[in-house]
Every structure is written in C-alpha cells, then in structure tokens.
Amino acid sequence: MPMSDQPLTLVALLHGPDQRGLVARAAGWIFERGGNILHADQHRDEDEGVFFQRIEWVPPAGAKPAAEEKAFLAYAREELRMNAVVTDSARRPRLVLFVSKAEHCFHDIVLRWRAGEFPCEIVGVVSNHRDLAAAARGYELKFFHLPVSATTKAQAEVRQLALLRRLGADVVVLARYMQVLSGDFLAAFGKPVINIHHSFLPAFAGGRPYHQAHERGVKLIGATAHYATAVLDDGPIIHQDVTRVTHRHSVEDLIHKGRDLEKLVLAQALRWHLENRVLVFGRKTVVFD
Amino acid sequence: MPMSDQPLTLVALLHGPDQRGLVARAAGWIFERGGNILHADQHRDEDEGVFFQRIEWVPPAGAKPAAEEKAFLAYAREELRMNAVVTDSARRPRLVLFVSKAEHCFHDIVLRWRAGEFPCEIVGVVSNHRDLAAAARGYELKFFHLPVSATTKAQAEVRQLALLRRLGADVVVLARYMQVLSGDFLAAFGKPVINIHHSFLPAFAGGRPYHQAHERGVKLIGATAHYATAVLDDGPIIHQDVTRVTHRHSVEDLIHKGRDLEKLVLAQALRWHLENRVLVFGRKTVVFD
Amino acid sequence: MPMSDQPLTLVALLHGPDQRGLVARAAGWIFERGGNILHADQHRDEDEGVFFQRIEWVPPAGAKPAAEEKAFLAYAREELRMNAVVTDSARRPRLVLFVSKAEHCFHDIVLRWRAGEFPCEIVGVVSNHRDLAAAARGYELKFFHLPVSATTKAQAEVRQLALLRRLGADVVVLARYMQVLSGDFLAAFGKPVINIHHSFLPAFAGGRPYHQAHERGVKLIGATAHYATAVLDDGPIIHQDVTRVTHRHSVEDLIHKGRDLEKLVLAQALRWHLENRVLVFGRKTVVFD
Amino acid sequence: MPMSDQPLTLVALLHGPDQRGLVARAAGWIFERGGNILHADQHRDEDEGVFFQRIEWVPPAGAKPAAEEKAFLAYAREELRMNAVVTDSARRPRLVLFVSKAEHCFHDIVLRWRAGEFPCEIVGVVSNHRDLAAAARGYELKFFHLPVSATTKAQAEVRQLALLRRLGADVVVLARYMQVLSGDFLAAFGKPVINIHHSFLPAFAGGRPYHQAHERGVKLIGATAHYATAVLDDGPIIHQDVTRVTHRHSVEDLIHKGRDLEKLVLAQALRWHLENRVLVFGRKTVVFD
A161-179 pLDDT, tens per residue? Predict the structure, then answer.
C-alpha cells in the first residue's frame, strides 16, 4: 500500500477545562524543544467551558518520535491538566471492515485505500454473508465469514471480538454491515467503531430508513456517519450530507441515489478519523477539518 | 403591484385512479377545442395507482377563460373521472401574512412580491405583536394586531377567521408566526396555510428546533415549508433545504444561519404554490417544478 | 450483467419547429394504437421556436417493438415533420471506455455497470497505457493497448476507429483519457463520445485545469461532462457540478477532491445518455431528467 | 444601529515569510502581556513560503486597546518581521454603498445591517440613478445622486472620490453598481472596494454574464464577490457560489434565480471582510472563516 512521502509529524488532540494561556503554552513548549508547528486549531465550547485543540508539528531534527510523544503527553497531562492523545504520522492504524451483502461502500473504501486516501492498513474483512468473499480476495484482503442469527448473536460477537484481537484492530468500519452490535461488544472492543446510517439522523433512525423517508414525503434524503454507541443510531455524528429527491423517486430510487451519499459521507468521516481530526465530547464531535 | 405581461393561460391540476390514455385524452380535448398546450407534466404513484397531471395551455383565441375553465372541469370530472381544479393566470390569489416578531421572512416575502416574483395580492398582515406594524405600513400593507394568550387563543382564532373572511383570503402564509393554529381553525378556514418550520422535518419537530439541533450535534441544519395540518409539523412537505454547520456554531449562530434558509425555502414553496404546481396527496406533495 | 425486470418500453426523442397540437397529436397516435404512455416531457425553446419532446410508452400488447418503432418514426417524420429517434428498452448500447492512467472513473463506471446502473454492454477498454490492463481483465473486460505519441496520433486514430467498428461501438466514454481526439476521428466515428473535463467549463478549458483553478484562487472547483466535438472542451454540456475549496487546498488537494466530482458527474451524464434523456441542439443539450 | 454585546477584542492579521516558531511567538507575546487568545488560525502557502495568521484576543484587563494595538504592531513588525494590521471590535468601519437600479442587493444589505449582521456604519448610498433614492431615505440613509455618462465619467469619479473622503469611507460595496470604476479611481481611493459579479468567475467575465451563460448552455450559474482591481472582474475572489439551472430556464429566469445567489454571496463576503477574516495575497485571498 502507498506510503506517504510527507515528513514525519506528530498530532496531539487535547481537551479539558478552559484556562487562560493554553494556546500559548502548548505552542511554547513545542517551540522551545525545537519542534515546528504546521497546524494548530482550537475550539472553546462556551456552554461547557471546555477547550479543544489539535496541534500538528514536525518534531526537532534528530529527536525520536516516541520520546517526543511521551514528553508532550506528560506535559499536557501534568502541566496543562488536559486529556491528551498523541500519534505520529508513520503509525498506520489497523482497520477491519465489517460488511454484509451491499458492496458499494466496500469497494469504495478499498479503492480509495489503494489510491492512498486513507493512512491505515486494512487487515481484514468480516462478514455475516459470503457474498463479498471473492471480491475481498481479489483485492488480496483476508475475508472472514462469521454468520450471525438471532439465536447465535452473542456467540458470534465473542468470535468477532477474538478475531479483532487477533488482527490487532485499532478501528472497525461498518460498511453497510446489517447487524446491530451490542453495547457489550462495543465496551469489550473499547476502540472506535464507525457506522454509516442511511438517513439524515436523527430523522429515520432504525430500520428501513429509505422506506420511512419515502413514506413521509421528504424532499431530501441523507446519510450520517457516526461512532457506534450502545444506543442505536444515537452516537456522536462525524459527518452528514443530503441529496434532493422528488415525488418521482420510488423507494428503490432512494436506495440507489443514497448509495453515492453513503460512500461519500463514510469516506470523508473515515479520512477525518484517520487523520486524527475528530474529538468526541459527550454526544457530539469536534472535527478539525 | 407589477402585473405579468405573459398571455393569459389556464392551469389544470388533476389526480385520480390511473387509466390508460389519460395523457392523450386530456391533451386531445384541449387540442380539438383550439387550445395550445404550453406545458404538460404527469406522475404516476405506482404504489397507490394514482395519476397526477398539471397542464398549462393558452385557451383558443376569442374564448372566454371562465367558460373554458368550466368546460374543462366538466370534461375532467365527468369523462376522465378525475379530481380537478383549474385556474387562470390573470386571477391573483389574496394572501394574508401571519407574523410575530421575527422580521426576516416578512421583509423577504414582501420585497419579492414587490419585485414581481409572486403572482398574488398581499391583502393584510396579521400579528400577535406590534413589532412589525410600522414596517408593514411602510410597505403600504394593512396591519392587524390580534394579541394571543394561552387563555384567549380560542377567542383570537375566532377574530382571525372573521378577518380572513373579510379580507377574502385565499391562502395564509405563516412567516415565522409563533403560535400554533388549532385544527379547528384550519378546518374552519378551509384553505391552504403554508408554514415554515426551522428544521429539517421530521427531525426536530416542535419548539426550539435550533436548540434541539445544537444539542444533538448535527452537521447540517434545515428548514421545511409545509402545509399546516391539525398535527403539528406533520403536514405535507412542499420544500426543504439544509446548510452546513460545525462544532464552532453556537445556538445563536444556527438561528442566524437558519434565517437565510428559512427565507429561501419559504419563498420557493410559496412561488410553487401560487403557480399551481403543488398537488397534495395524503401526507405528501407532488410538485411539478 | 443484470437485466432490467421492467416491461419493455419505447422511448422517442423528437425535435423540430414548434406547431400547435404537437403534444396532443403524438400522445393521440400512441393511444389510438393501444399503447400506454408512462412519461411525456416536452420543452419549447422560445428564442428559436423549436419544440423538443421525450415520450416513453408501453407498446400495445402483442405488438412487435421493431414494428412499433418503425411506425412511430414514420408518423413523427412524415406527419409531425419532426426529427425523431426511437429506441426500445431491451436494446443495450455497446459502450467502449477510453482510459489512460487515472483509475477512479474507470473503476467507478465499471462497478456501477456491474451493479445494474447503466443499461448498456461494456464491450471493451481502450488505453494508450498498460496501467489498467490487469484491472480491466479482473472485471472480465477486453483491454486494448493502443499507444499514442505526437508522431503516431493520426495512425493510432485509424487503429482506434477500426477497433470501434469491430466492437460495434454505439458510444465512447472518455474516462479521463488524456489524449485529444481529432475532429476527423469524431466525424469518422459518427456516434456520441462523452468526455469528463475536470473544471467548471467554460472556466479553465484546456490542460491542467486544477492548476489553473489554484492559480486563480477560485473558491469552487468543478467538473463538466459533455459531448466531444472538434473544438476542444466546447461541446454540448450534459452535466456539471462543483465542490467548495479554500486557500488551504494545494493543487494536489484539488486533484484529489476533484476525483469524486468527476466520478459523480460522468456517471450521471452517462446514465442520462443511456436512458435516452439527452437531446443535443446546437451547442446545448436538453436533458429530460 | 445594534451594537455587539461581546467584550472588546483585538484582531490581528499577519503575513510574511515563513519562519519556525511564529505560532508560538505571537501567542507567547499576548500571553505574557496578560491577554487571552480566543481564536488563532494560520496558513502556510507552501509554494511561496508565506505564513498567514489571524489572532483574536481579549486584551489584558485594564489595558487601553489603542496601546495594545500599537504594542502588538510594533512587535509583529520589528520582532516577527511580518506585515500586520490590528483592529479592535469596537471600531465600526464606515461603509458606502454604490447602487444603480437593481434593488435586491441594496435591500438585502441594509436589512441585514439593521438586523445586526454587519459590524459597520453605512454612511451613504451613492447612485448613478435616482431609482433607489426614496428607499434609501426610507431606511434613513443619506442618498447621493451622481450621474455618470461616457463623457462625464472621469469627472464623476472626481466627485465620487471627494464624497468618499467627506464621508470618511473605509470600504465601498458595489451592490450591482453598473459602472466600471477606473484603476485611477481605485488607486486614489486606496481602500477596499468589494464587487459582486453575476457569474462564476473566471467564466463569463464582462457584460451580460447571464446571457453568456444561457448561450453556452451551462448547467450551473454562479456569483462571485471579489475585491475590485484595475483589471475588470479579475480581482481577488472572496466568495463564490452556484445554483443549478436547466434547459427550461430562459435568460430572464437566470437573472431572477441569480438574484438570490448575488445577495447571499455578497452578504457572506462582506461579513467576512468586516470581521477582519480576509487577507489578500497577490491575486488570491486567504479567508479565515
């Protein structure tokens, strides 16, 4: 897979109670150590009094990235009293795709990945159906068929979790995976799971959203990429978009038109996630795009 | 007010059970009488087996529009067995604006009307507040202050109805009027009432939709123009649009950005309504744009 | 490849000098023969006095489509004095894709085609490079490598034309094919060639449009699908769309963001073309969507 | 006119050759003096090696804004070696509107201004026609009728310049003013002049852009707000947007649909300008939105 030819950079995501001087202090620490800030973006939630920041910088020449990360983390947590994560651009998260029968998001993500759009490794494709096995293997991706039925769901989740551990998964993408993951599964996995829901949430949560939209006679249909949480279709929204429909469109037309939306919205959300641009705060996200 | 310099045309809106030959028969009747069809648009609802049509034509030279309307109506109802309404382009519906304190939709509609965008007469401005009285009179519009409180609402609706009758109202536009009209009022008025709701319905129905949207952390906010029905924010949708927001936007920002959406969506819906392009069918609309 | 499960329909595209009664007469002819009109859409160019119509109908039960087509054509040409083409929905045009090195439009079109979005047969992939040979064969498509250089261009076009004839091509799609086809080639082929240009034409015609756009500092970039003509980037426009960019985007970002635009615009234009919704008139198109 | 109830803030716009540590040094200077940074945004033009920054901060309690501005300017210019301007949020620029006969942008800007959207004072309306005199006076704005003809243009510009000086104008907005201002005028005025051009520049520069667009058969029309320069329709672009059109739209329809675009694009550009979010660099802008 293509590797970026950019110089190595570090990215820190910080959040915590607002205090005077946070912008200056974080920037000052990096500057004094010899780093060079490429981007610094911040946000204040006025209602909650919370400060959010994303800083991307080139570490000092000759410094070891791992040591710089550790040092910055210590500074952020101990001196600034902020929640912080730091990653370096050379580390490529290990992504597992969950799919069912629909193939549009699957192909879209894999082709964009091969074209270098996503800084990650796709380390496996998991499905409750066999339909996409050949396509996955055509892309030289490992395919795992884990069937799920109403009675075997808990058991299937145990197997899925074991597989995710074995694959060393850092993030799961539900690319039109048609099973709901339980709160227990999400808690046990403990890492981000990104879902694409085929409506403009919170309108038309739950099943058959295009049917619901057609029934209601809306003039726009949407798609929403969000982090999965224990409450169905309620997790923090990363990205949304809509497209215009008219009375002429049948449910099948909505499904068909919706595919392009789903692909674009999921791809954008995943790109932001992988570039460490998304901070979750309560039920919302801060996206430093 | 500006008058159109177009030749007089007739517009028919038809709907009823689908039958073979409806397009040909309606067109044939007009042709044989000497009329000239300018636009003919139709739609079939496959689920319900219902046919919808809008035809716009120049009546035969020398014919009286009223007689042509009556003749077409008789043909449509008796021969084609369709529900039908016919209007002529010289007839300008009498519109009454309901407003409260917000002025953006009020100015927008009046200025567009003065610029010739809306083929109607604005015959009065009704408000439960006095804030827009001077502005209305500055436009040489009649302003009626009818205060409404929780205890006087039924009584106020009686006065509103009497006023609408006296003004000969054909259509009411709720331009950010902040009172809910009762089902009784709507039934008694018996004519179209167009409302602008400041969200992408069905998301965030009811009060304070921008606050709800901010709370949920959506990435798009919307506005919806719909016909008012007895069920709040549930009437047939005429038009909707959305605009992008981010974590940076406060509730006040959403309110502010939403104003432009509300103006554009309400103006477009009203234009379509006045051009006889909207057919209501159950909870939905067919818009021949 | 997937076949539509719709009943067979005929589609006629007509255009010619406007006359009273055209809508009624065409519809009447079909009705009297026992056909059932599903859609009829028309347009009048007021400046030129030209009438355009698209009619889609189910031929009479038991009738042979070919005979109905012939009969309608004769009626349209001789009685209505209109230019006319008629096609039936069972006939799937033979499409040839021209590609170079960029793969995004290539994959997008082939995947949509396999998903049933395009009613056509893709009968070959022609390229001046070998880069996409394996991918084409992976899709079980015939791949033809026809190198082109400044000195061999005329000769290459002769080979391309021979190949198109051998493949029985009805339409060519230039899916980011990076050679300009000569006017002689287009005249000799004599069938539609659809190109995707990576700008909002007429802005930034010619080479390196994203570089031109970056240089000028525009705030939106676009893509344009058009029929190729002897004058570069000047043919009738079928579809266009744009996306927002900022000062933050480098030329590489524009190229990257533009890919999604190019895919969506080309796919939509091709779908309309294959559904017989596009009429070319002078330098413009009428698109009955 | 409404006054903001926000605390006073200072905004600095900086640009100059990129150097390591600029983010940290500017932030550090403010922090050490006791200020509190609310927003800090920056951009690097990689091609040119230029650094751009916008910083907004609350000055130290008790400090005089004018003294803080002066001190920051000295630091930025002497220590950082950057071009810099600083403004404070209490200072409201004096804006002069130039109009001709079209009224939509005029009403839109004045109504938004009265609703508190624009932090400025509108100190006069200048027109080469009398059409909007009564409307301007209705808003209690001073109206100046300065007729312009081919032979009197140079002379009229002398009078316009004298008037702008007398009014103390800080910025001029050409709200569909239909005369081209000469390069001499712009040089003599020496302050920003914002124009709204009714096309997606660089497509359809010059006169009658909607006619040009209709002629070419484009599927989107646009509007562009830009700073006026000596070369017509070539100045740095601040904002652009487009809307969809079809073959059904006549030139008159484009003009009519375009009005909404023009209003929205000009209002957004003006808001950004007045909030000190726009930096001009060569033929482009950096907009810190």
Answer: 999 999 999 999 999 999 9
Find out whether A135 and A102 touch, Cβ atoms under 8 Å: no
Average pLDDT on B146-162 reads: 95
Identify residues of B whose CB sits under 8 angstroms from chain C CBs: 20-21, 23-25, 27-28, 30-32, 36-42, 44
The rounded distance, in Å, linking the Cα atoms of B163 and B176 is 19
Residue B214 placed within a domain: yes
The single residue of A47, A233, A253, A289 carrying the catalytic annotation is: A233
Task: Say what the pLDDT of residue D284 is.
Answer: 95
Q: Considering the domain boundaries, does residue C1 fall inside one?
A: no
Question: Do A77 and A196 have their domain in common?
Answer: no
Residues C137, C264 share a domain:
yes
Q: How far is residue D207's CA from residue D180's CA, in Å, rounded to a whole number?
A: 10
- Residue A272, min C-alpha distance to chain B (Å): 14
Residues of C classed as catalytic: 233
What ipTM describes this predicted complex?
Answer: 0.93
| Domain-terminating residue out of B34, B61, B88 | B88
- SS3 state of residue A248: coil
Interface test with C, best of D13, D220, D278, D287 (most C CBs within 10 A): D220
Task: With respect to residue B112, please indicate whether it lies within any of the assigned structural domains.
Answer: yes
CATH number of the domain enclosing A25: 3.30.70.260
CA A60 – CA A47 distance, rounded (Å): 37
Domain that holds residue C33: 10-88
Asked if B261 and B143 sit in the same domain, the reply is yes
The alpha carbon of residue B14 and the mean position of all alpha carbons in its chain are separated, in whole angstroms, by 18
Q: Does the beta-carbon distance from A41 to D41 stay under 8 Å?
A: yes
Residue D205 DSSP label: -
The answer to whether the CB of B113 falls within 8 A of the CB of B1 is yes
pLDDT in tens, C96-111: 999 999 999 999 999 9
Q: How far is CA C90 from CA A152, B238, C269, in A?
A: 45, 36, 20
The C-alpha atoms of residue B148 and residue B154 are separated, in whole angstroms, by 9
pTM: 0.95
Tens of pLDDT, residue by residue over D229-263, are: 999 999 999 999 999 999 999 999 999 999 999 99
Q: State how many domains chain C has.
A: 2
D191 and D277 fall within a common domain? yes
For residues B139 and B258, state if they share a domain.
yes
Residues A96 and A124: beta-carbon distance below 8 Å: yes
The arithmetic mean of pLDDT across residues C2-21, rounded, is 83
Question: Is C213 within 8 Å of C199 (Cβ atoms)?
Answer: yes
> Domain boundary at A88, A105, A123, which?
A88
Which residue intervals of D97-171 are DSSP H helices? 104-114, 133-138, 153-167
Q: Are residues C119 and C175 in the same domain?
A: yes
> Distance of CA A76 to CAs A30, A71, A80, A87, A247, Å?
11, 9, 5, 14, 55
Mapping DSSP to helix (H, G, I), strand (E, B) and coil, where does residue D194 land? Answer: strand
In a domain, D147, yes or no: yes
Strand boundaries in chain C, DSSP class E:
10-17, 36-45, 50-58, 83-88, 94-99, 121-127, 143-145, 171-174, 193-197, 220-227, 237-244, 278-281, 284-287
Q: Which residue of A has its CA nearest to B214?
A: A284
Q: Distance between CA B37 and CA C42 in Å, rounded?
A: 10
Dihedrals phi, psi of B62, to nearest 5 degrees: 85, -15
Same domain, B111 and B214: yes
3 state SS of A18: coil
- Nearest by CB to D107, which of B111, B256, B260? B111
Of the residues C5, C19, C23, the best mutation for testing chain B's interface (the one with the most B CB atoms within 10 Å of its CB) is C23
* Residues C281, C143 share a domain: yes
Q: Let me know: does D284 contact C247? Beta carbons within 8 Å.
A: yes
| Chain B positions in Cβ-Cβ contact with residue A210 (cut-off 8 Å) | none
Q: What is the largest CA-CA distance in chain B?
A: 63
